What we know:
The chain is mainly alpha-helical and 220 residues long. 82% of the residues lie in helices and 0% in strands.
Amino acid sequence: MSTSPTSYHADLSAIGASAIEEMTYRSRAREEALSISRQVIRFSANAIRAVHRGEFEEAQNLIHQAGERLEETKGMRLENPQIYYAGFLADARKEYTEASITLAVISSKAIPKPEDLDVDPSSFLNGLAEVIGELRRYILDALRREEVGRCQELMDLMDEIYGVLVTVDFPEAVTGGLRRNTDAMRGVLERTRGDLTMALRQHRLEARLAQWEEGRAGGR
């Protein structure tokens, strides 16, 4: 039995209408996800700035707001995985992770795990990598204030983070560019080590000089 042109027309019209409906739904979901990702990135960046100012409560509030917005994307994980795992939402989860870990470390709290933040391992590890840069910033600020107390502790933590990251050996498509990010952080790590070594040597030298001058003055 042959199919008439009229039947082809009806079938193609139905196929086209169904495809348009599906793509319209996906387009709306993508626009919503883009808006959420921008807000999450903004909240996270502001939280990191608050951490560096020592405003931990403000940072926590901003991170909470970022987490609430990410919560709205959870339905996309099953309904629209191609959007959920798209670059812009992965970046948002990465920035959220970076802000959360930065706050935890600098406020002397436990580092949150991926399940605590409800983010995928790739986004978590990329966010963890960028924490190295934030710790460098904190150390340099502390050195400028001549507050060297936690600098070595945080330097050791930078080493620990890097040590974990270099063990993750998967294709970039799986890790979201983690190898490239890790390689960049190696340079940050080595520059910080050099800056801290020089600063600590000078600090010790100044302390010995001050001690010598006190002893000399006391002997007069």
